[in-house]
Amino acid sequence: xxxxxxxxxxxxxxxxxxxxxxxxxxxxxxxxxxxxxxxxxxxxxxxxxxxxxxxxxxxxxxxxxxxxxxxxxxxxxxxxxxxxxxxxxxxxxxxxxxxxxxxxxxxxxxxxxxxxxxxxxxxxxx
Length: 126
Prior knowledge:
- By secondary structure, the chain is mainly α.
- Helix 5 (73-83) crosses helix 6.
- It starts with 5 loop residues before the first strand and ends with a helix.
- Strands 1-3-2 form a three-stranded antiparallel beta sheet, sandwiched between helices.
- Helix content is 58%, strand content 11%.
- It has one domain (6-125).
- The longest helix has 15 residues, at 111-125.
- This is General stress protein 17M-like domain-containing protein.
- InterPro entries: GSP17M-like_dom.
């Protein structure tokens, strides 16, 4: 499993559900698999349908969540993706996919896994 956030662009609910199940089988925990659509209502619906999570204040951080109240929807979506570790350029591209009605499925390794991976990497370079 990688230490980077994985992002999949899906075109419908069935594809999104299959991707969520695949990520779960690959070892991602349910609480680290997220869905995102262009609208908050759509994201809520897809999360309920697939059993995935929504990106919340816990992932974003309080300051970003407050700032999102004053941002355009596009800026808010990019901030949510960046909170999960998606690079700026990729977040901009993916926001365009959301504009076209796509559903994003994002999977972030747990922090425990990342900490272990980084420590393991440091041991191998010493």
